[in-house]
Amino acid sequence: MDNSTIIKYLSGVASEQEVKNLFQWINTSPENRKDFIEMKKNWALTSVANENDEVVWQNFILAKQKFSKNKFFKRQFIQIAASILLIFSLGFATKSLVSKKSKLWYSSNTIIEVPAGEMSKLTLSDGTSVILNSGTTFSYSGNFSKGERIVQLDGEAFFDVEKDSKHPFIIKTKLLDFKVYGTSFNIEAYPESNQVSTTLVEGSLGFVNKKGDELGKLVPGENLLCKGIDNKINISNVSLDLYTSWKEGTIIFRNEKLENVAAKLERWYNVEIVIRSPKLANELYFGTVMKNKPIDQILEVLQVASSLKYQIIHRNDKPTLIYWE
Questions:
Q1: Mind listing the pLDDT tens digit for each residue in 133-150?
Q2: pTM, to two decimals
Q3: How deeply is 15 buried, as exposed, middle or buried, from its count of CB atoms within 10 A (0-12, 13-18, 19+)?
Q4: Domains of the chain: total
């Protein structure tokens, strides 16, 4: 079967004759049908952002042909294909996600709580832009509009802070505070995780202990991780997308424990996930998921890419319950 025909069909632009030829090929043998279902599943749920469709498909086919004779490597390939590819509608989904969020202006005593499964974008009275992730609480006092730029964060947010040398911008979290010098950065400080992660995109960002002592400054591309057990601070150079892609509707995992993946999915989709196997909880996942896809589709990708099996139980008065085993 001509690869371009399959690409057109999966992209929804194949002609009637091309569709007919494709299904004739599928019905020729059980193996063709099995291969097509496998390919369609990976294509429908995943694709590589900003890459040529023909190149993606050719690589998929070549890799499959290379490993098809070995069941072990075939299984490994399927897992990798399902894990590392992004959902092909990334561009459209990102635009839709942001466009549906209205820009909000606040200037007085304010507490903003973002429910699980949602995001919120706001602009503060000084012109600072803030994107709040699911399950986040963000607050500041009425003195903010008078130049006292101090905010409290419990959750995750991406900041693009307006420069003002006379009025420093201070962000308070449970473990550390941050002094901003006009910059853009991400902070993840969910109370239940007992750690703070900060990634600087541009500008300069100082980190301050609870005694008010400034301990140092980050430079663009650096991530700071502070764990509450001993408040030890670790700074490393990172790929920014790993820490900031959530604001565009995607979460990128790189060798992340499935128990951590579950925690993020719970916030993103407002579900409750129970992992029945300790071994599964510690299994590592390498891949990307998108918020605009239904949770059952995300679970299908995870199931292909790991040993995970799941059961969904819908509840009327509580978040949907999902068992992983």
A1: 999 999 988 677 677 889
A2: 0.67
A3: exposed
A4: 3
